[in-house]
From TrEMBL:
Phylogenetic placement of the source organism: Bacteria, Bacillati, Actinomycetota, Actinomycetes, Kitasatosporales
Domain HTH merR-type: 51-114
KW DNA-binding (keyword) present: yes
Pfam families noted in UniProt: MerR_1
Protein name in UniProt: MerR family transcriptional regulator
Superkingdom: Bacteria
Stored SUPFAM superfamilies: Putative DNA-binding domain
Length: 201
């Protein structure tokens, strides 16, 4: 499926473009297991940055320009904290990788819209391929091979691998319950700050 650009691809994998997912219903969230993607858990900016491998300046700029906005809670003036979902953090990490490989911001914006429109189960099976100008979605190894043989694919991002990387990183960091604001302590045994904060509260 095509995400961005005007390139022609091998059969089964076409360049993604704006509106490519307009008629596609996302898969139900329940199709993916695990705790990190729970919709009642959010991650503050510094945690999202650490898990995605980006700077806070990048996070802030992408949120202010609408590239990747927090889906749980945006910042409302000074003193409020953005709250990102697990999917948001996965998208942040993918955006970072696309930028690092030279994909244009315009094409990345279209790719982000496409990723947000897909169901969670779809994301874990997806590979994004690019030649630096066009981004392609592949959902099977055969499509990846066809793109490589046709010269369209220079690099690939296996979204399922990014998903697991983010899941592992967030398991060591702190989340926040959306309903109560309670800090959820990661599995890092060296960090007692959140435990003390919860006990004091």
């Amino acid at each position: 499926m095509a995400i961005t650009g005007d390139g022609m691809a091998a059969e089964g994998a076409l360049p993604l473009h704006a509106g490519a997912t307009a008629n596609r219903a996302p898969a139900p969230a329940a199709a993916v297991s695990g705790d990190c993607e729970a919709q009642d858990i959010g991650y503050r900016g510094p945690t999202a940055c650490a898990a995605a491998g980006i700077t806070y300046r990048q996070l802030d700029y992408w949120a202010r320009t609408g590239l990747v906005e927090p889906s749980i809670r945006p910042a409302y003036g000074s003193g409020t904290q953005r709250l990102y979902s697990f999917r948001d953090v996965v998208v942040l990490k993918i955006v970072k990788r696309l930028l690092d490989t030279g994909v244009s911001l315009q094409n990345i914006r279209t790719a982000v819209q496409h990723l947000r429109a897909r169901g969670l189960a779809d994301l874990t099976r997806m590979t994004l391929m690019s030649d630096g100008a066009t981004v392609y979605e592949c959902t099977s190894p055969d499509q990846v091979v066809d793109l490589l043989q046709g010269g369209q694919g220079v690099f690939g991002i296996a979204v399922g691998v990014v998903w697991r990387d983010v899941e592992g990183a967030l398991s060591q960091l702190h989340g926040e319950r959306v309903d109560t604001g309670e800090t959820l302590v990661g599995k890092n045994p060296h960090d007692e700050l959140a435990r003390r904060r919860n006990r004091a509260g």
